[in-house]
Amino acid sequence: MNLKENQSQLSAIARQGSGSACRSLFGGFVKWILGKEGNGSDSLAVQLVDEEHWNDLVIIIAVVSSRQKETSSTTGMRESVETSLLLQHRAKEVVPKRIVQMEEAIQNHDFSSFAQLTCADSNQFHAVCLDTSPPIFYMNDTSHRIISYVERWNRSVGSPQVAYTFDAGPNAVLIARNRKIATELLQRLLFFFPPNSETDLNSYVLGDKSILRDAGIDGMKDIEALPLPPEINNISAQKYSGDVNYFICTRPGGGPVLLSDDSKALLNPKSGLPKEA
C-alpha cells in the first residue's frame, strides 16, 4: 500500500483488530507497550529482538480444537475487566514486574527464567478467566493433561526443558529449549496423543517434519513402539488417541514480507479478497 508509517505506527491500526495482530507486524520477540494516552495512540508494538536472536528455540503447537470458541477473546476480556478482582491485581502488581523479568530472560537467553515466567503467566491468565463472572473456560481436559506431562518432565530433570502457554483457547504452545529437547517432546506428545489409525501422519504433524525424522518416526508402527517416558511411573499410562487434532512444528519466525510472486499470496491481488481454494 506504499504507506510511510513505520511498523510500530501501523501496529496501532492493527491493534484495533486484535492484540495478536499488532504484535505480529514484527518477527522475533515483540513487546506491546501499554501507553498512557486516553485515545490509545501510544499503545504500540515494538520489536525487542529479531528471530535470529534466540534461534535454539523450537515450538510445537498442539491443536486441541479448531472449533469456534464459546466466548470470544474480546467478549471475555471485557467481562474480566468488569468483574475480576484478580485481573486488577494482575495488571497493577504482577504484569509490570514480569515484563521486565521476561525482557531480561530473552536478552540473556535464560531459558529457566523464560519458562517459569511463561508458564506462570499463562496459568494466571486462565485463573483470571475462572475469576470472571460468569467464569470462562478456555482450556479443556486435554489442555490440563499436557500441562501435567510438561510439569512432571521438568520436575524430573530438575530444570525447565519445555515451557507451555495457552491463549484464549485449549491449544497448547510448547516451547522447547533446543532441537534435541523438541525431539523428545514430540516423542512424548505422540506417545500420549497418538493419531487415530485412519489418520495420515503427514496431516497429523505439520510444519518442520524433519523433527519427526530426528525422533525416529516414519509411521504408525514407530509411534506404537515409543517407550513410556521415564518420568511416568504408571506402567499402564493411558493414551488419548484422537484428543489432539494435529501438531505444528515450527520456530520463532519473521514478520510479514511483501511477496514478489502473486501465486504464493492468499489474497487475490486485484480484489483483495481471499482466493478460492
Automatic annotation (TrEMBL):
Catalytic function, reaction form: (R)-5-diphosphomevalonate + ATP = isopentenyl diphosphate + ADP + phosphate + CO2
Gene Ontology terms: biological process: isopentenyl diphosphate biosynthetic process, mevalonate pathway; sterol biosynthetic process
Molecular function, one GO term: ATP binding
Its EC number(s): 4.1.1.33
InterPro entries in UniProt: GHMP_kinase_C_sf, Mev_decarb, Mev_diP_decarb, MVD-like_N, Mvd1_C, Ribsml_uS5_D2-typ_fold_subgr
Ranges in a coiled coil: none
Top-level enzyme category: lyase
Keywords: ATP-binding, Lipid biosynthesis, Lipid metabolism, Lyase, Nucleotide-binding, Steroid biosynthesis, Steroid metabolism, Sterol biosynthesis, Sterol metabolism
Residue span, Mvd1 C-terminal domain: 59-258
GO CC, one annotated term: cytosol
Domain Diphosphomevalonate decarboxylase-like N-terminal: 2-45
Similarity field: Belongs to the diphosphomevalonate decarboxylase family.
UniProt protein name: Diphosphomevalonate decarboxylase
Species of origin: Citrus sinensis (Sweet orange)
